[in-house]
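Table S2 (continued). Query chain:
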Amino acid sequence: MLKYFMESDLRNQFRTHSLVAGILLLVIGLISILLPELTSLTISFFIGWMLVIGGIVSGYHVMKSYNSKWIAWLKPFLLFAIGLLILYRPMTGVAAVGLLLIIYFLFDGFAGIMFGLELRPLKGWVWMMLNGLISIFIAFIFLVGWPISSLWLIGLLVGISLVFDGTAMIVIGTSIHKNIFE
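Corresponding output:
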């Protein structure tokens, strides 16, 4: 990892991309924090529509390719039906997304800790470690309140995680300069 930062062009490229990604993540995170219910329902509706569209596309494929085999219709039917269920009852989708986010935050936390350890000689590595620890903490908060509080927790906690992701990227990006070990 450190060899990557020795070349000036790569270092400048990493710095620029880290700052741009960090600022975008920070803005998206703040919007999610300010509008948590809207964020949660938007995520649920998005997933619902993706499943409905996936069911239609998969059904088209079955119709054109495997029309005589009834078992081939199972996947398109399930995609379409679950998508409609989520669109008709978005809170079911929010609860399911809440459960998936618990898993996501656990993996995100462990990945952030490992990335922080990988960056350890660089200034700002502690922010990445803190980001990982906060993601694990968020997963446990989510688990305790699930599924009742999923409506506001999804948007709020995703927003908090994105704010910390953005902050960590900005700190790391601004710490990259000629002498990376200062």
